[in-house]
Amino acid sequence: MISLEKYRPQVLGLLRIIAAYMFLLHGTDKVFGVPAVFGAQPLFSLFGIGGVIEIIGGVLMILGLFTRPVAFILSGQMAVAYFYVHASLSNVLLPILNQGELAALYSLVFLYFVVAGSGAFALDNKISKK
Questions:
Q1: Which of 20, 26, 77, 127 is the most exposed place for a label (fewest CB within 10 A)?
Q2: CB count, 10 Å around CB of 77?
Q3: Is-cis flag, bond preceding 95, omega within 30?
Q4: Which percentage of the chain shows pLDDT scores above 90?
Q5: Which residues cross the membrane (predicted)?
Q6: DSSP tally for the chain: helices H, then strands E
Q7: Please, which residues have CB within 8 angstroms of residue 24's CB and are 6 or more apart in sequence?
């Protein structure tokens, strides 16, 4: 049987980069209105501040810089988003009905990075070697 274990760091790094890129797009939409899905939100609103956190956190996660603490903050942000925004709309146990699937999934994915680290292709790896 072929062991795929040796590819774990590369796949983890790829997951980090792709998830962070998609997360970053949520922030750029909230702050700059690009891509125009929801449109720019007032900067000092709950969504505007969330967008700034998503941009900064998304960039740091793409780079793999301070991965664990950044992922902890982003996981918490998405947990708050789920319970404060989405779960208040409908049944907390049915994210498909309250449109909270992405918030719940992002929260869990970022929590995984807190535990697993950054994987391959990360600046954290370069810093820790020095």
A1: 127
A2: 20
A3: no
A4: 80
A5: 7-24, 44-67, 79-97, 103-123
A6: 6, 0
A7: 54, 55, 58, 59, 62
Under a CB-based contact definition with an 8 Å cutoff, are residues 128 and 24 in contact?
no
What DSSP designation does 85 have?
I
The residue type of 21 is Y
Q: Which residue has the tokens 């146990």?
A: 93
User: Helix 101-116 crosses helix 67-80 at what angle (to 10 degrees)?
Assistant: 160
Rounded Cα distance, 79 and 3, in Å: 35
HSE-CB of 31 using CA atoms within 13 angstroms: 14
Report helix, strand or coil for 90.
coil
Say how far apart CA 82 and CA 101 lie, in whole Å.
8
Query: What is the Cα–Cα distance from 7 to 111, expressed in whole angstroms?
Result: 21
Judged against a pLDDT cut of 70, whether residue 127 lies above it is answered with: yes
Cβ partners under 8 Å of residue 129, min gap 6: none
